[in-house]
Design a protein that fits this description.
This protein is an alpha/beta fold. Helices cover 24% and strands 18% of the residues. It has a single domain, classed as Purple Acid Phosphatase, chain A, domain 2, CATH 3.60.21. The chain contains 7 helices and 11 strands. The longest helix is centred in the middle third of the chain and has 19 residues.
Length: 282
């Protein structure tokens, strides 16, 4: 029995949808889906159906794409998130709103799906959070989140992010008091994991500094994230960080199939941290 993770299925793209049909089943294993299944509830439904048909238990956290609202009158902000959670519950998929589950194998770990947004603090120290969008725009960068990710009913995305951080901290403090954790969030929990060499000024839309010490504070064995479309394994403070994106069609090889991009979270590698920096996976 193994716990796997995958993020950024991006089922709005036809090649990604077509690959679902070729995805082999692993009926004894569990799967973490770390956000950006797609941009509509139909995309999410398609991805959840494929995952639950193939795995014994499935966990989901939202990415920014699941929260987008393209059409007038469609659910926005919190209402879009609530609709996605309701869709997950139709499939028996566990979400950040459900009780945490303990991995039944060894090592025992609390699997903690999280929904923590971004607050524009993943930027250089000399740039104020209020100036982060303008700083990115000076380099020609503007995230589509500014147009499509509404914070309703919160006054801003930052306010929604901070509310989610507060909520998550309370739950994690109780759940992880005596048991190690597997922390799962779409966005990376640390700034130093955001290595976007081609578009470095996209970083304000990649997380919040308020989570940078969660891996030690909440006794994590592994931290799972996506969003960057840059698959990598990092070791920080003895904790394994896994970026598990599939990505847009140009980011993965069709001949490997979706199964070729699953990352084993538990039991995981038998060896510990290695020297020489992050290990990239392509």
């Amino acid at each position: 029995m193994k716990l796997y993770a995958l993020a950024d299925l991006h089922l709005s793209y036809r090649p990604n949808r077509e690959a679902l049909a070729e995805w082999p089943a692993r009926p004894d294993d569990w799967l973490i889906v770390a956000g950006d299944v797609g941009e509509t509830l139909e995309h999410l439904k398609l991805g959840l159906a494929a995952a639950t048909e193939r795995f014994a238990k499935v966990f989901w956290v939202p990415g920014n794409h699941e929260l987008w609202s393209h059409q007038p009158g469609s659910p926005r902000g919190l209402a879009k998130y609530d609709a996605a959670v309701a869709m997950c519950r139709r499939f028996g998929v566990l979400t950040p709103e459900d009780p945490y589950v303990v991995w039944p194998g060894e090592p025992a770990c609390v699997i903690a799906p999280l929904f923590v947004l971004f607050d524009y603090t993943f930027r250089p120290d000399h740039v104020a959070p209020a100036d982060a969008v303008a700083w990115a725009a000076d380099d020609g960068i503007l995230s589509a989140d500014e147009r499509f990710l509404a914070p309703d009913p919160y006054p801003s995305r930052t306010a929604w992010c901070h509310a989610r951080v507060d909520y998550s901290e309370q739950r994690l403090a109780s759940a992880c008091a005596t048991t190690p954790s597997i922390l799962v969030n779409h966005y990376p929990l640390r700034r130093d994991l955001v290595r976007l060499h081609r578009i470095p000024r996209f970083s304000p839309w990649c997380g919040t500094r308020r989570t940078e010490h969660w891996h030690t504070r909440f006794r994590a064995r592994v931290v799972v994230s996506g969003h960057l479309h840059l698959r990598a394994t990092d070791w920080i403070d003895g904790v394994r960080f896994e970026e598990v994106s599939l990505g847009y069609p140009r980011h993965w090889r069709r001949e490997q199939g979706i199964d070729g991009y699953l990352r084993e979270i538990l039991p995981g590698p038998t060896s510990g941290p290695h020297s020489g920096g992050p290990e990239y996976h392509w």
